[in-house]
Specification:
- The structure holds 2 protein chains of 2 kinds.
- Chain A is of the alpha/beta class.
- Chain A has helices at 6-23, 36-48, 66-69, 91-101, 135-145, 162-173, 205-215, 223-261, 271-281, 290-293, 295-308, 311-325; strands at 54-57, 79-83, 110-113, 124-129, 150-154, 178-182, 196-200.
- In chain A, 50% of the residues lie in helices and 10% in strands.
- In chain A, helix 1 (6-23) crosses helix 2 (36-48) and helix 2 packs across helix 7 (205-215).
- By secondary structure, chain B is an alpha/beta fold.
- Chain B contains 7 helices and 11 strands.
- In chain B, the strands form 2 sheets. In chain B, strands 1, 2, 3, 4, 5, 6, 7, 8 and 9 form a 9-stranded mixed sheet that branches. Chain B has a two-stranded antiparallel ribbon with strand order 10-11.
- In chain B, helix 2 links the parallel strand 2 (49-55) and strand 3 (78-82).
- Classes of the chains: A alpha/beta, B alpha/beta.
- The interface between A and B is medium-sized, with 24 and 21 residues.
Chain lengths: 327, 271
Amino acid sequence: MANTTITTFYTTIEAYIDFYQKNTPHLFAPQISINPLDIFIIRQLVDFLPVMPTVVDMDSHATYGVSQLIWVPAWNIKKLLILNTISDDVWEPILEQYLNELVQDKEITFEYITQLPASGDRYIVAIIVDVPQNFSHRIQEIFRHHPEAIVFILPLPAYGDEVALSLMQMLQNLESNYVTISMREQSPFFGTSQLGVVYNTSRDDIPRMVTRLKQLYTSNHDFLSLLKLQIDLQVQTLSEKMIQHDNRQNQQKQEQQLQAMSPPPQPIATGNMINRLFRQNANPDEVPTFRTTSQPAIKFVRDTYQRIFPLSVRLRFRNIRMRILGF
Amino acid sequence: MSYFSHSLRQPPLGVTIVIPNWNHELVLPRSIRSSLMGVQLLREQNIPADVLVIDDFSRDGSRPLLRQLEALYYDDGLRLLFLNENIGISAVRNLAIHRARYQYILFMDADNELIPENLYHFYRSIVDTQATLVYGNIIRHGAIKGYLGTFNNESFQNHIFKQNYIDTFALYDRVQLFDTNGYIDHPLMAGHEDWELILHLATSGRLIVFVPMLMGYYYDLPTSRVDATRSQQHVMERQQYIERVFNQIGLRWHLHPNTHHLRYHPDVGYV
């Protein structure tokens, strides 16, 4: 369904885990836990199948019933068979109680089986949740009964792992051609997935289903492209800044060299200082000043002034001037 | 369409931040980022929290973006629901009341931004006061001028019957909202559903408490839904509707509801 999300399928399981922890002193500690993203992928791929399949849950006990709850609510599956080889586990009555008391839209009847059905149903989906060392013989057993089954395996070991290599070797040695798809390689957003899908190459519908699933995660804003764009932009900005910085430094160096060649400028404060500088730099013999050019006129003005104002008057003038100016 | 078909069982204590989305692809990362930070800070205080984004049948590319974010941040508490048809904001919020995981829900719009550090204090306030709703200041941010001031800046008083001053962006007790029937979907209240809800809660005797703290940012968008409801005629009709529902005999001004003037600070108490 186009409107399903991880939340759609995982809410029931989340509520079960809460319920479990409330109702027992034991921690919810299954042998293997299933990633919410993997649950979504399994359900979504099964929804894409052309007909409703029969689902065989091979390892309900390993997940404390979580692999069983993947199918609640049970849209788009014909029936759910639970392979039950271990009985009286501590989680079983809790799961039963949870289903009876809290799940309203179950729409599913579980059927417990002790061995794989022998019928040759083409649309059969098996889920194996086990340690990777056991995958080989269990997958072979399923394909012996149902050569065209789709097998979901969890958790898929990391590449480079010895178990992963032996698994690949085993799949190659099978009589027919079988393919394993590692979902974490299908999209950048499936990076946390631990799901592997094993199927017969005669089934051409599986690659199309996987492509369809990948397209659900395709948008204009691919994070990796955005990151690359961001890095490119930063590199470009940085290189521009570096060029500007180099230019500025070169300019400063040139300015410093020019300044070193000429004498430092003198501070200019007053008109007297300018006069003083002028006199310091000019030859006193060549520069005509008021004193040198007007000696007789100055002498006449001074003598006349002293004749009009005798010394006693001039002293009074001086006293008044000092009183006014304060010195 | 009723989303309250069966009763709400006792939800666990904690906060679900609800972000309804309708064609807000380009501003969604801002609201989701701030709310995930809020979740992280609450979890550090041992308060369970998650973010529930409900997409109301967007057509603008929100959906693949949300799928990508859900795949990346599911473990950090991002939850996602896609609707099969566009049902409108009131129905989406009612659905959130029903589908959220924890007892308290913080409603924010897809273009809002939460101040994550303060969420813990709002949580303390709503637990302490047992209010239906606690709210704080919101900074209004314009596209051109930037800071435009704050609103949500006073406690509940009767002049709210004339004009709303409390935004949806607040923390709610989901059980109390459920018991008071949540939001109404009425054409005259389109864009003002939050106002109607607040008046409904106040007149039902529930507590609406102002906490003098910053809740987050409200960004003005050029094509805001509320702008379309500001025509003179629409305002008059809406006011008549409010009068008819909440103040039929004109006594409302003389009655102080339980929630009158309640202001609370978790470190001080009622102020």
